């Protein structure tokens, strides 16, 4: 429990750092992005195009634009990680958020693998529904990416005592203990550059702990992976009070 508290503290100061960095990067980046795009458009419109500029039009500028897109994606993930917009606590149905996540990931997930969904009746939970949908999206995307040659995802919910339990199981490549140990670290990825930012599970971890829940992984190389998320039906009072203090009770600054 002590280690978990330290881990949470580390991730929350990291969250503040992330918010600061994201903010600093965003403005110059949008400036660079629009200039590169404008330059590329102008060069493409140039008739005839001087041969020494061909490489810029075909390679250099498109590659630069790709790099910028990647930075912008990382910054967007950083922002989410930093929870710049936590959203209000509301009552929600976890099964509905799962349905939202399945719709969002339809092209990347359902087209590639079989998805078996088993949902139990759940009581309404208190939390930030949009964030929970994002958790499910990240787990589904990771599962699908772990199965390049197809496979099966089993997604289920159930109630255990006063906790909602969500399981996402895949038949993919699985993970070594070394990978499992670093899973939730921001920027940890085993995917080739351009495919993973390594922020997905860091975001998931932040969301689940801010809901006073737990996430747990079981996996073995070539033997698939199972993520289990536990969410208290009503998060402890502390979280609800912290949420209120962001609201109308805060004096205007
Ligand atoms: P990303 O997907 O961008 O790499 P994540 O934080 O979502 O970042 O995941 C971090 C790493 O954890 C992945 O690169 C991968 O090595 C591993 N991982 C996550 N989910 C799975 C899974 N379902 N099966 C196998 N490996 C996984
Ligand atoms: Mg991911």
From TrEMBL:
Ranges for domain Histidine kinase: 20-235
Superkingdom, natural source: Bacteria
UniProt name for this protein: histidine kinase
Region entry Disordered, spans: 242-253
Keyword set, alphabetical order: ATP-binding, Kinase, Membrane, Nucleotide-binding, Phosphoprotein, Transferase, Transmembrane, Transmembrane helix, Two-component regulatory system
Catalytic activity: ATP + protein L-histidine = ADP + protein N-phospho-L-histidine
Enzyme Commission numbers on file: 2.7.13.3
UniProt keyword annotation of ATP-binding present: yes
Top EC group: transferase
Molecular function GO terms recorded: ATP binding; phosphorelay sensor kinase activity
Keyword hit for Magnesium: no
